[in-house]
Fold these 2 entries.
Entry 1:
Amino acid sequence: MTGSKDETEDETEDETLVSIVLVSHSIELSLAVKALAEQQVQGRAVIAAVGGSENPFQPFGTDPVAVAEAIDAVYSDDGVLVLMDLGSAVISGQVALDLLRPERRARVRICSGPFVEGAMAAAVQASIGMALDAVAREAEEAMQAKIAVLRPADDSSSQLLSLEVPGVGEAAGTGRRASADVLVVNPAGLHFGPAARFVQLAAQFQAEICVTNLTTGAGPALANRLNRLLALGIEKGHLIRIEASGEDAETAVDLLARQVAHDVARYGYVDSAQPGSPSPLETEENGAALLWGQPASPGMAIGSAVVLTAPHLSLDAPLDRRSTVHFNTQQEWARLEAALRSARSQLEALIARVRSTFGEEQALIFQAHLLLLEDQDFLAEIRTAIHGGASAEQATQLVVSQWAQRFRLMSGVIFQQRSVDIEDIGSRLLQALGAYEPQATELLERAIVVAETLLPSQAAMLDHQRVVGICTASGGAMAHAIILARSMGIPAVVNAGPLLLELAQPGTQLAIDGARGLIVVEPDASTQEMYAAAQLEAASARAAAWVQAQQRTRTADGIHVEVAANLGTVDDVKRALEAGAEAIGLLRTEFLFQDRQTPPDEMEQAELYSKLARIMGDRRVVVRTFDIGGDKPAPYLHLPAEANPFLGWRAIRVSLSMPEFFKAQLRALMRAAVEGNIHILLPMVSTMDEVLHVQALLATAAGELKAAGAAFRADLPVGVMIETPAAVEMADRLAGLVDFFSIGTNDLTQYTFAADRTNERVANLYDPLHPAVLRQIDRVLRAAHFQKRWVGLCGEMAADPLAIPILLGLGLDEFSMAPVSIPAAKQIIGRLTMSLARRLAQKALQMNDGDSVRNLVRKTMEGIDVA
């Protein structure tokens, strides 16, 4: 512990922990100060916030009873410090003392310190184990730091805090001594956050430590007194001297100097570490520099930097330098239309790839890109620019830059991060126009991708066999590129600041910790060894999970539950089987009908379905008939443009309106059924009439195959997708007509809340874990099981770790998901008992919202060992 012996010896003999109660007329103010204080001390102090009135007509005020209850809630034998804002809060604090038991009252201190500054100072002192008197004294002196910094330089009283400090070693006898001069590089200087980290680290040593600001001459100041440290006015670029005397003097000076020298790029850092996670102060890593960013995707990785650059779309740097030339309007618009067709084709292929590899939820990212390319306002603005004489490139660049800027200026962080998606779309269009060639980047083994920001399309195309980590100078954890990184299990740190791009050159060795937001540039030998071991351990755990996934899925009490795969193409089956899929829960057949000018004929379809059936053998293969329309067009069908295609002519509605076209697919499936266990799944069913109509077409198709002398099976099991509230309401009747149900929670959730999941403005309403959705799933399962029908679920919800326990408890028979998610899902199911899952599910049905459900699941799963 630092500080002069006469000040601290009796205060730190035992490890102490003083609690703090904040009392304000406004509960919002009290909570905000609490959050600010907790951020400074990384949650190392116990703080309660109280305030406000329950009277809706007079919300400001204080309640002595509430204050007393808050004191009791955080009471510690080491003491409680109460800080108040003004007026009646002081009276409420004093009255609250009288409401406490006498033995507790003696350990509570009402403090006269300033509310905000006092809370910051008290929290830091409490976090390093100072006694109640010392914590109170620091809070009461907190305003002096601000006064000292704001006084004119020639005012001698500006040194009133630092001049009180005795000489280093004066109280420490003739112990060891050490000192070091170090340049402050943190953009915030040694202000609240960095100063708090400095004080907390200094408190770990048996030494008296002082700091002097050599640039201004302020100091020395005791390193265990936050107010005095702040009063030194240490800013970025200032040279400071750290001096220590005592048993740990050399170690203390060495580590504190390193922290000051490496404590860079903290701006933009958002601490999302979970309770108990190591803070930056406790880091064992070392290297040429330590950069702190925002944790974005957990995991540790070490490798070589591969620097990616994104196309520059600034209005200040037009692509076409011939800005004075008036281009031919018709020719430029024709060029743009050709580029739009090319970009759409690329996106459709990318959507299919992402859907089959990562799942429907991730594919939505690029479906939204596709929708923007078809947005009438977006295209109208480009057309206007072209009519004004701009080239197709200039018009695209202008409009994309303007749209991206609109998103950057929006109030929500998530909206701001979507500006990158706009730029990604613009880059794709400009590339299709021939404005630039895409960057050719060679990915090394164990590559760590470094970028200013990562475009979603760049992330989707990464080879996750080579890329072991991602770090960006800007961006956020909810950027679409980072969502994809999490899907791939790639550790990521974002928003690390511009220094990242200066230090991380191509080939630079980096170590990153995605859970803490730490980037180590040119790590030393011990750090390299630590990260390499962690990386190997994680890879071994993943490999073990994949090996274990080959076994049949059983709960902890031995109940078999089927985990199946969603496939976007037949070629994905190998990956699904490697992941441990026990069946194919959904084969999307759109891949056969899209990206071509003519539809596939019956025999082409039959060959592909037969290939899959042979590979799977006796294992079930659920084939969904073509789900064309909405976001999945087929040019040769000439489907009309609709104001809202998701509520229009799509899926089974299109199939039934084109019976000959539909029968070709039904006949192909009947032919393939002789090779394996084919099931037919009908999408977007809303009424019983639709099912009856399909059954009639199946009978007709079987008659046609029989007449042709073909080998076929007519008794294929037929199921329907439950994707609409209408199907949920009629589930008991539909169950009498079909052999199974498959719940499509992506669309069911969308239609339940009347919220387009690709629309950022209403995306907050889209919540599959909301009880409104869970209750519908429960109703469907009960209706199906009553008539001995099995039920699968093929939406993204099936792979959600927080949804799996609830779905298991509701009685779901089959979980179908992207292959990459199967091992983890099997592991979660294997850790659960049916009795626990059933209790959890019933509680979830009684919750009021999705967040309450998530909190319930997290709390239930706390004691369950799930990797």
Note: The domain at 149-263 is CATH 3.30.1340.10 (Histidine-containing Protein; Chain: A;).
Entry 2:
Amino acid sequence: EALAELLLSIDKQRPGNFEIIIVDNGCLLETQQVIERASVPYKYLPLCDNPGYAMGNNAGVALAAKSSRWVLFLNDDVVLSDEDFIQNMVHLGDAQNNAVAVGCKLLTAAGDEIIEAGSIIWSNGGATGFGRGRRDIEAPDLSYPKPVDYVSGACLMIDKLVFTNRGGFDKNFPNYYEDTDLQMYIQHELGKEVWLQPLAVARHDEHGSFGQKDSVTLMQKASKTFITKWQAIILEHHIHAPFTLTKYEQDVEHLRASDVRARNPTKANILYLDTLIPNKTKGSGYGRAFDNIAMIATLGHRVTVVSQVPATSEWCNAICRSEIVSLGVELVTSSWESLVDSRIGFYDIVIVSRPTTFEATYAKLCDFMTKSTFVLVYDCEALWYRRDEKLFTIEKEGTIHFPSSREFTTSTMDLLVMGQRNVEVSLLSMADEIVPVSEAEAKIISKIYPQSRVTVVGHVMGLDRITKSTFHERSGILFLASFGGDMYYNGDAIWYFITAIYPLVLKESPSPINLTIAGREIPDLLRTYVQKTDFYQFVTFIESPIITDNLFDQARIFIAPHLYGAGIQYKVSEALSVGLPVVMSNETAEGFGLPFANEDISCIGYNTESFKNCIIIVHSNELIWNKLRDTAVNFIRKTHNRDEVMYQWSKIIQNGLNPTSLARKKKHCISKLNLEYPSGPCLEGEKLYKALYKDMSEHIHHFQSMFEHWAKFGRSEGRKYICET
């Protein structure tokens, strides 16, 4: 029955380029009857003298097609759980350059309990299936791809050339430990890796082939042979069995042992904490966050990703989560505070991304520091207070009134900037290393804290998406951004464009130039305004486009008309990388560090008039358009190079692994940096809170004051309530 169920589960696999070889050890009549009824095509090898697992599989591999790369060994008491099983195994093997063996997540025959999610070899030669006996089979630590000591031979895929060059399984291990022995050879003699693929799940009737009693006897005999052969290497490379420690300490040590990277002294265990799960499609810096995580994982470090705000499927759906996990990264969607409480002593480095995340978590992180030794890296991305400083400077000058700030009084503006600046500057002092996105902001940080260690990590852009359409196959202007339903920043930028620049473009251009405004949660105010204009027919709104390549390929110009900001705009980098010429404001150009009046990379609009002229010239002149396209691609090739950015991350992490980095952190921990927060309501705080957060008009009757809402909910959500001191 077991073999019949296995063959049926193979028959249900998605069509693929694979063959089935059945090795019949023993030639029992019942087995032959099942094989004869099989509906799948197969090669059949009867070995009626039953030479054992090792020799039987060696003989079976000899029948495999010469063109095949992988061989998947399956016990006859295993059942593949879904139709993507083989596809997932092969995909991981192909994706991980150093992997030559892959195993699956094994469950009990009932499918409700873990047998192993990869297995551990301790320094005494003992072995443990990671997660064995647990019923939380979808837990994060059991559900991400990772390099492991070994995987069960009941479900083992291996590079055929590696297998045959070695001579297959060692005949000195006829029925147990032959799989473990082979995987020790892969890691310690070939210098290659064995990976767990948790997306491939199989149910296993453990010991079904021999029965419980005979299995234990055979296993004990093979264990002695294994330890004798590999003892020296096991003592050097594997950690001590933790079974005499407390339950808490055992859990941490099992976690460390379950991922080969986690116990490698040259690699780091890293906790990456952001406001939300880094969904690269959402904008707002999350594309850069995803790239950073991918690069750190590629460098061979073990990474846990967790969000400060509870994860939701609306923000990051199953596809989004799968993309993160497929990097070989653990994704935790439960409470970040519970996570750090359960892993004291585990992480070497904690990376906190964004000022709002750091502000909301610093108190807990400081408490974590008193219990656990780690280095704190603050990926500030940008100095956000500078964005508001520039915005309110423009407002005070009275030349432009942006929708996002027109309800603020001068005193409210000053209060908001002062409060945000104090918070961000204070947070800088808590980090062992600070990571901004631009050289300009790195210089500012170094002036604020000359003793700080600052490393710039910019955007990464490949050149594999360069658009194909020629100048004459395109038309129109594209503005693509993340709005989040708010006019602040991106909303203000396109507001300035459609109110001050676009009417001039339409007036002076020989023919109308269409405008496309695309992005996530476009504010209704923009649509309402455009509908009331006499150019509404030339403007198209595209809400939350899933694919943006077609937008880049159809537009002739990308615009970045921002008059205030901080850091570097990811979408501008993206536009340049796909070969779409950009017309940008002077503010945007300064963020990129472009030299004054550098018209080779982008046409820069220093004011309304010159921005309008840039659009008309670039949109109408094929020679200039092609020149900007070529120089933009070359600029990205030099400044957004993945290898260079990975090198910066490697330096940051090596600094974190350096024991001398710990002294500063201990000082911060003892001092417990205190941010100044109001202890009660104040008039200016009440006004500011109402002005900043429009949703409070719906909840105002539920609270005695805005301060009450902030104290109960707003502070943890990153909202601002500021009183003059």
Note: The longest strand covers residues 193-204.
